[in-house]
Amino acid sequence: MKNINTKSYCENRFSSGSWSENGKRQTREYAKENIKHFGISSNFKGSVLDFGCALGDAIPVYKAFLLNAKLYAIDISQSAILACKKKYAHLATFISGDYKMSPVVDIIICSHVMEHISNDRKVVSSLLKKCKELIIVVPYKEYPLFHEHVNYYDKSYYDIFKVVEIKTYYVKYENKLKLTGIIKRLLKGKLKLTYLKKKEMIMYRLKGDLK
After folding, report:
1. DSSP annotation string for 62-120
2. Which CATH architecture has domain 7-207?
3. Which of 17, 40, 51, 171 has its CA 20 to 30 A from that of 24?
C-alpha cells in the first residue's frame, strides 16, 4: 500500500483547512478517553511528549489532568506547529520536526500516529531511547483500513519490544454530520444533525530505555 502521509501531504492537511472541526473534535475526544487508560497519576510531575500532536487539541485535555507535568508536543508539519504555538503556547513547548527531533522525556504519548507511518517499528525503536515509557494508541483490528492508514494492529504487533501492558477499549462520542449526511437524513424525515462515532482502540504501554 502506498503511503500518502508525506510531509507535503501533512502540511497541506493543516494549512488548507481540510483538518476540519471534526478532526479537532476527534483529537479532543480521543484524548479524554485515552487519558483514563494511560495509568499516569494526576500527581505526576515529570515530562510528557505528545508525539504527532497535529493542531495540539489534546494538549488542554492532558494539561487539565496532569497539572504538574511539563508538556511537550512535536509534529512533522510546520504549519501545525505554528498554529499550536498561537493557541496553546501557554500550556506546552512545541517542536517542529520528525521523530529524530523528539526531546528526551519521561513519557511519550503517540495517539493515532503510528498507523500513518510505514516504518513505525523503526520509529518506535528510536523513541524508546528517549523515554522511560512509551504509550501508543492505534485503531484495533481496523478493516478495511482508512485511506491514510498503512498498518493493521493486533495484540502481538509490538511483541519485539518490552510490552508492559496491552488494553483495548472503545471511544464513543457524538460527531457533526457533513452537509451531504444532513441532506440524506432530512430526506428521510430525520432532523438529528449528529451521529454516534464509535471506534475500538488498542493501547500498548512499552518500557523505554531510559532509567
Report:
1. HHHH-TTSEEEEEES-HHHHHHHHHHHTTT-EEEES-GGGPPP-SEEEEES-GGG-TTH
2. 3-Layer(aba) Sandwich (3.40)
3. 40
49 touches 102 (CB < 8 A):
yes
Q: Which one-letter DSSP state was computed for residue 44?
A: -
Torsion angle of the four alpha carbons 96, 99, 100, 104, in this order, in degrees rounded to the nearest 10 = 90
First and final CA of the chain: distance in angstroms? 38
The answer to whether the beta carbons of residues 147 and 1 sit under 8 Å apart is: no
What is the Cα–Cα distance from 100 to 81, expressed in whole angstroms? 16
List of residues 6+ apart from 18 with CB closer than 8 A: 12
Could you identify the residue written with the cell 502540511? 11
Burial class (CB in 10 A: 0-12, 13-18, 19+), 81: buried
- 180-208: pLDDT as tens digits: 766 776 677 776 777 688 999 999 999 99
Nearest CA to 30 out of 53, 4, 5, 6 is that of 53
Q: What are phi and psi of 93, to 5 degrees?
A: -100, 125
